[in-house]
Write a structure and sequence with these properties.
This protein is mainly β. The strands form 5 sheets. Strands 4, 5, 6, 7, 8, 9, 10, 11 and 12 form a 9-stranded mixed β-sheet that branches. A hairpin with a 4-residue loop joins strand 22 and strand 23. The longest helix is centred in the last third of the chain and has 7 residues. The chain is globular and about 65 Å long. The chain starts with 5 loop residues before the first strand and ends in a 5-residue tail after the last strand.
């Protein structure tokens, strides 16, 4: 998710307003594909090369001057409707954008507790009209809906989302399962709507082997737990289809042992010993293959990438294919780095000649774009579109030295004043081989091709 549990700034631990760490897991055991384990490690040595510069640092954003995307709701994580090949879809000339949402009178720290997916439609891809909730009230699985993706094929929408908790459950839990539903798309001169939804299905849950289960996470894990953010992907080279997702490496912390490949070269570790506390970082990027063209039938594969002893949370993973190369992107927070490492709130990326295996960090460290040091939490949840436009959401601005944990102790007025809850300017990204550069800014929410 997008609102972080804690930050680290100038050596201080900053606690956020959102996710709890108690998470549940279900009993479904997915089928594993018979493939070679070619998971790549994002290493401590690579992360140590992170450096802010003009090519990766976003300009300062005055959140107070942003217009709300919709008057009645906060919105954060967003994603467009795509076709089955992953291109931005056009439905009788309409583009569709989805976003997590909560009523605008809800304090920022509570939005994840009632998150609902809403959608917007637009003819030009930059001026949007609120269409309503994606699903009928009470239809989705879980007590709230977290981020996902959506693709259309033959007049249908296949909507993927994170089913979090269970309806009617008290107190709230943070069990996370990958879910989907299929419905009809109806478009006319007035706009777009979705009808005739089929049954919602749980399509994937953690297995405890490749991906950490809730029981394993509760056995002394210091960080969070994640199994969320299903993202549709079709490989243009093979026409095989997949779901990417965020997870954590399987196993309990007491069973986790350090491997040199997690850190990098022996020369690096001889000068930079790995702290014992780094064991709690076990973020990974998962992938599952679609079986026989049925998006609800998945074969779980080994992770594309792991960040053991490096980072505990690699959110909203997605792939863009350009110049016959696979560009794997993910988001993470300041506080999610393992002990002894530092990195900004940012979009990170990796490149490979193949979908499975071979990923190397972009720009040597992996950092693609970051918030400026003077406003380190101004935006988050970046998503790179096929046209290399990057959308995100405006988070917290102009906090000075105040920690996020302090924000919750301020007046409601202060909290609303410093929270974005809307979309910031879209940013153009340029990519050449294994290097990237931030380019022109466009209007907030601009996804135009």
């Amino acid at each position: 998710m997008s609102i972080q549990k804690s930050f680290q700034k100038k050596g201080k631990a900053l606690t956020s307003l959102a996710l709890a760490t108690t998470l549940a897991v279900s009993a479904l055991i997915p089928v594993h594909a018979e493939v070679a384990d070619t998971t790549v490690n994002w290493t401590r040595e690579q992360v140590s090369k992170i450096e802010l510069n003009k090519d990766n640092t976003l300009p300062y954003l005055d959140i107070s001057k942003l217009e709300k995307f919709t008057e009645d709701y906060h919105i954060w994580d967003s994603w467009p409707l795509t076709d089955r090949d992953g291109n931005i879809a056009s439905i009788k000339g309409w583009k569709v954008l989805f976003a997590l949402s909560a009523p605008n009178d809800v304090l920022p720290g509570k939005v994840h507790d009632i998150a609902t997916i809403r959608y917007f439609y637009s003819k030009n891809g930059k001026d949007w009209t609120l269409g309503g909730t994606l699903f009928p009230e009470g239809a989705s699985l879980g007590s709230r809906e977290w981020a996902g993706s959506a693709m259309t094929d033959d007049g249908k929408i296949h909507a993927f989302y994170t089913a979090t908790g269970h309806r009617g459950q008290e107190p709230l839990t943070f069990e996370q399962r990958l879910a989907m539903a299929t419905g009809d798309i109806v478009a006319d001169s007035k706009g777009v709507r979705f009808e005739n939804w089929g049954d919602h299905k749980i399509i994937l849950e953690p297995d405890g082997n490749y991906y950490q289960s809730r029981e394993q996470a509760q056995q002394g894990e210091g960080g969070g737990y994640a199994f969320r953010d299903p993202m549709w992907f079709k490989d243009p080279k093979t026409d095989k289809e997949y779901i990417l997702f965020e997870g954590n490496s399987g196993g309990a912390v007491d069973d986790r042992t350090f491997k040199q490949e997690y850190a990098g070269s022996t020369e690096y570790t001889s000068e930079n010993p790995v702290p014992a506390g780094a064991v709690h970082a076990n973020g990974n990027i998962g992938i599952a293959e679609v079986v026989d063209g049925d998006p609800s039938n998945l074969k779980m594969l080994p992770p594309l990438l792991e960040a053991n002893y490096v980072n505990e949370e690699l959110e909203r993973p997605h792939i863009v294919v350009k110049d016959n190369k696979y560009y794997l992107f993910t988001d993470t927070h300041i506080n999610k780095y393992a002990e002894g490492l530092q990195g900004p709130e940012g979009l990170y990326g990796f490149v490979s000649d193949t979908l499975i295996g071979g990923y190397e960090p972009l720009n040597e460290s992996g950092l693609v774009l970051a918030n400026p040091p003077e406003n380190p939490y101004q935006a988050y949840s970046w998503l790179v579109l096929p046209n290399l436009n990057v959308v995100a959401f405006a988070h917290f601005g102009d906090l000075g030295d105040m920690s996020i944990s302090d924000v919750g102790n301020q007046s409601d007025e202060f909290q609303f004043e410093h929270f974005g809850g809307t979309l910031p300017p879209t940013v153009k990204l340029s990519i050449k081989g294994d290097t990237t550069k931030i380019g022109k800014e466009f209007s907030p929410g601009w996804i135009k091709q």
